[in-house]
Amino acid sequence: MLGRRGVRRVVLRIPNARILSFRERAEEFCEFELDGTKFVAWEPWNDNSRFWIGSKAAPATPTPHLSKVREAFERARPALGFLLPARDPDLE
Fold first, then answer.
1. How many structural domains is the chain composed of?
2. Which of 78, 89, 91 is nearest to 6 (CA)?
3. 19: domain range?
4. What does the alpha-carbon distance between residue 26 and residue 60 come to, in Å, rounded to a whole number?
5. Has residue 42 been placed in a domain?
6. How far is 71 from 14, CA to CA, in rounded Å?
7. Is the full-model pTM beyond 0.85?
8. Which listed residue, of 7, 30, 48, 90, carries a Cα 20 to 30 Å from 19's Cα?
9. Cα separation values, 87 from 41, 42, 45, 53, 58, Å
């Protein structure tokens, strides 16, 4: 299982991705940009066990960068629900 902070950590591992906003208690909790395309991660009704991650502009329209995002989440293998922290350039 991957929590909201884990989603943020996976996004930080995507080359050329940058976090635009992260609000742990909001329904749309993580907004990020990858090569000019904005994406959003949200949890419907704030009590679901699944997250939706996709393009912010046109959620039903695939973007060329969507495969990079999908691959990053497929590679994420949390152990006991945790990922090791990724390097956050905003905190350096």
1. 1
2. 78
3. 4-73
4. 22
5. yes
6. 9
7. no
8. 48
9. 20, 23, 30, 21, 29
Token readout for 33 is 């940009």
Cα of 27 vs its chain's centroid, Å: 13
Of residues 71 and 22, the one with the higher pLDDT is 22
* Residue 7 CB neighbours (<10 A): 22
- pLDDT band for position 57 (cuts 50, 70, 90): confident
Torsion angle of the four alpha carbons 58, 62, 11, 78, in this order, in degrees rounded to the nearest 10: 120
Domain membership flag for residue 81 = no
Residue 83 placed within a domain: no
Q: What is the pLDDT of residues 72-85, one digit of tens each?
A: 888 886 654 455 44
Phi-psi region of 81 (alpha: psi -120 to 50; beta: other; left: phi over 0): left
The residue written with tokens 């699944």 in the block is: 50
